[in-house]
Amino acid sequence: MAQSGPPVRHRSAWSRIKRDRSLLIMTIPVIVLLGVFAYVPMLGNVIAWQDYSPYVGILDSPFVGWWNFERVFTNPLFWDAVRNTLVITAFQLVFFFPIPIVLALLLNSVITPAIRTTIQSVVYLPHFFSWVLVVTIFQQLLGGAGQLHRILADNGIAMPDIMTNPDTFLVLITAQSVWKDAGWGIIIFLAALSTVDPALYEASVMDGANRWRRIWHITLPALRPVIILLLILRLGDALTVGFEQLILQRGAVGAGVAEVLDTFVYYQGVINGDWSFAAAAGLVKGIVSLILVLGANKIAHVFGEAGVYKRA
């Protein structure tokens, strides 16, 4: 008869707190900052149901029910901002999201660690640049008086001003995002690739698998959980497509292509002073983003992935 192991002793909640008190004390500043800057401001969403005036205050501003939400859904400028936001998100999801994956696969195939580290550092450096600096660099290169225009003009070649052309604005902001943030994605995917057992590659080589077979059957399955997780987070952030980047270039190309939900809320709430309208629009954006995250996470569970969270 098999003997059972020693009985498992369950610690009380108080004993676990005493055991982990050092870690809990370290998390207190983070919890306080999160509460002050993330959860307490949520109480201000009540102005979406008020005719709010900062000179009167929240307590004395009259309630108007769902009137502000009716104004949001009947405003054609709001739907124009939604369309621009979704177009930019879909375009960048197709032409920007896969680039860090491809670059990580290429870097992972580089044998020399020194070359890999150098390339990774150069590609990652623009992540630390502000959007003001990124837009300025592109303006100096591609603007009407930029270096590229001067070189082409000296050779008798005319070139339109890319920085002020609404037809190429979508490609322009995607190129800026790739140059600035592709390096950050490379680090995440390289970290995932570092967990792959080298014995798997050695066994596949012994079985006669070429490089493409090894990528398809070993590397990509190792990246799949990370890819799905980042894709879910990207969908949840689909209605936020770079406030600083777009507001810096909105005046050059016009609101017709550069007006997104964040800039729309800014101009309606801060510039025009319609705080309640802007709060209602921002609340609609937040609810839709939450639905996208929950829906994408549910789809990930259907395909057997953990996603952002998974029920126990």
Please characterize this protein's 3D structure.
With 312 residues, the protein is mostly helical. The chain contains 15 helices and no strands. It is globular and about 75 Å long. The two termini are 33 Å apart.
How would you spell out the order of helices and strands? HHHHHHHHHHHHHHH
Please give the alpha-carbon distance between the first and last residues. 33 Å
Give the overall pLDDT as a whole number.
83
Strand content: under 5%
Given helix and strand content, the structural type is mainly alpha
Q: Summarize the biggest pleated sheet.
A: none
The percent of residues in helical segments reads 55-70%
Coarse shape:
globular
| Oligomer designation | single chain
Query: What is the β-strand count?
Result: 0
Count of helical regions: 15
**CA gyration radius, whole angstroms:** 25 Å
Residue stretches low in confidence (pLDDT < 50, at least 5 long) are: none
Give the key terms.
globular, mainly alpha
In short:
With 312 residues, the chain is an all-alpha fold. The protein is built from 15 helices and no strands.
Chart the SSEs and their pairings.
Blueprint: H1 13-19, H2 21-39, H3 67-73, H4 76-95, H5 98-108, H6 113-124, H7 131-142, H8 147-154, H9 169-193, H10 198-206, H11 211-236, H12 243-253, H13 255-258, H14 261-271, H15 275-302
